[in-house]
Design goal:
single chain; alpha/beta; Udp-n-acetylmuramoylalanyl-d-glutamate--2,6- Diaminopimelate Ligase, Chain: A, domain 1; UDP-N-acetylmuramoyl-L-alanine:D-glutamate ligase; Protein-Tyrosine Phosphatase, Chain A; 3 domains; 6-stranded mixed β-sheet; 16 helices; 34% helix; 23% strand; disordered N terminus; Mur_ligase_C; peptidoglycan synthesis; cell shape; cell wall biogenesis/degradation
Length: 502
């Protein structure tokens, strides 16, 4: 959270107070040389922000921040026993205040970028990558903020959250501006929306992919999950930027009417089943890609993409809708899609010359797993063998649902560990078994994920398909709170090589 080359190096606290329209106790004329919400990383001259989270409260860490040299405190309630030399700014919500302050500190980078936000349960990563690739074909530099990585120019920066905390996000957007980007495409998670991480951003475009069960360990109710997603659309009409604003909505999703009503700007729909502005017809799916007929106001045109499955047709339609509305012509869109690269860990083929298919995918929700397995089953002549588990310390309700889905589509399933985190992995597996055992007896439990992948590959015969689901692009596994290196694609290749040597 240090200064970037383009960041202002100090502000008088009074300027921050005035911008936030907040109250202040103490001298408002102290100089602030940085902002920090982690007491361990505070530097002399910083404004320490007391963030209130689900597991900790930043107000409790004010003494540590002062020891590190914090010059002032931003809090939700007065902090007692502060030295007279330490002013404190009081706001109703420190998370929202940090988001607004971050944008202010970095001179409002979102006002200098065309901001495209993509939200939904599944499809965000593939859709944002497709939009980025399409708009770069039109010309200029496009930045991306997402699950797999953040791209600033050609520089890749590791991502710890789908949507970073507001301070880091503002810094990323600032870097994009100074490297010449004209547009930023961002995955916007429900956590980020509920926690006001993007409250300092003004979006020009909001896109909704779909809504299915996920994150109910955090949101606690479906309504809260839905309402968090809707915030991106309800704020779309508010702001100071010029230029066209619009929303793009998956018209086939049952929740589409909620997003259409929330937008209060022009809305464009895409879909396959329901009538929409952008539609796909005559869909043909193969192991190596998908073809379909794209119908839009510019007429009908055949499209061919290397992405497989109906769920990816939706992702392509979403990206194409944005590209059309941003001024791209259909022939240019079609030309790019024929060579669009595979997104890491999204229906990614692992090919070492074996006579069967191995697919690694990030699917970790019931709907995501069903999409992947339905597609794999459709393109498999032989048997579908699935390896999957469920994450620990997350929504327990989806575990039996995912077990039942695996049992429904798979000829054989190996239930294993995903990221058990701090939970007992066998407890997670038992809850998965509660679903799969009601559907089929064609499964086994191998808690060790490497052994599970090895077993699936050994079982596979010619024309079979092995799907390894849940972790996708991840290169780690979290067991008993400790992070270990683990990459499904890497392990699959190693086991395929061993198989070839037998």
């Amino acid at each position: 959270m240090g200064n970037s080359p383009w960041e202002v190096f100090w502000l008088q606290l009074s300027a921050i107070v005035q911008y936030l329209k907040a109250g202040v106790q103490g001298d408002p004329h102290v100089e602030i040389t940085g902002v920090n919400y982690d007491s361990r990383k505070v530097a002399p001259g910083d404004l320490f922000v007391c963030m209130v989270g689900t597991k900790s409260d930043g107000h409790a860490y004010v003494p540590q921040a002062l020891e590190k040299g914090a010059a002032a405190i931003l809090a939700q309630q007065p902090v007692p026993d502060l030295p007279n030399s330490i002013p404190q700014v009081i706001v109703a919500d420190t998370r929202e205040a940090l988001a607004r302050l971050s944008s202010f500190w970095y001179h409002f980078p979102c006002h200098k970028l065309r901001m495209i936000g993509v939200t939904g349960t599944n499809g965000k990563t593939t859709t944002t990558h497709l939009i980025k690739g399409l708009l770069e074909q039109k010309g200029g530099l496009v930045g991306l903020v997402g699950t797999i990585h953040n791209l600033v120019g050609n520089e890749e920066i590791a991502s710890t959250h789908t949507t970073p905390e507001s301070w880091e996000l503002a810094g990323l957007l600032d870097q994009m501006v100074h490297m010449g980007a004209h547009t930023a495409v961002m995955e916007v998670s429900s956590h980020a929306l509920k926690q006001n991480r993007v409250a300092g951003c003004e979006f020009d475009v909001a896109l909704f992919t779909n809504l299915t069960q996920d994150h109910l360990d955090y949101h606690l109710s479906w309504e809260d999950y839905l309402n968090s997603k809707l915030k991106l659309f309800s704020y779309l009409h508010i702001g100071e930027k010029g230029g066209a604003k619009y929303a793009v909505v998956n018209g086939d999703d049952p929740m589409a009417p909620h997003f259409i009503r929330a937008a209060q700007v022009p809305v464009w729909t895409y879909g396959i089943r329901e009538k929409a502005h952008i539609q796909a017809h005559e869909i043909k799916i193969s192991p190596r890609g998908t073809t379909f007929l794209l119908k839009s106001s510019q007429g009908e045109v055949p499209l061919s993409v290397s992405l497989t499955g109906t769920f990816n047709v939706y992702n392509v339609l979403a990206a194409v809708t944005v590209a059309l509305l941003e001024g791209m012509a259909v022939p240019d869109i079609a030309a790019y899609l024929t060579r669009a690269p595979q997104v890491s860990g999204r229906f990614e083929l692992v090919d070492e010359g074996q006579p069967f298919s191995v697919i690694v995918d990030y699917a970790h929700t019931p709907d995501g797993l069903e999409n992947i397995l339905a597609t794999a089953k459709e393109i498999t002549r032989g048997r579908l063998i699935t390896v999957f588990g469920c994450g620990g310390d997350r929504d327990r309700g989806k575990r039996p649902l995912m077990g039942a889905i695996a049992g429904k589509y798979s000829g054989f399933t190996i239930v294993t560990s995903d990221n058990p985190r701090t939970e007992d992995p066998y407890r997670i597996i038992e809850e998965i078994e509660g679903g799969i055992s009601k559907i089929t007896a064609q499964y086994q439990v191998l808690e060790d994920r490497r052994k599970a992948i090895r077993q699936a590959i050994k079982m596979a015969g010619p024309e079979d398909t092995v799907v390894i689901a849940g972790k996708g692009h991840e290169t780690y596994q979290i067991v008993q709170g400790k992070t270990h290196h683990f990459d499904d694609r890497e392990v699959a290749r190693e086991e395929l090589h061993k198989l070839g040597q037998d």
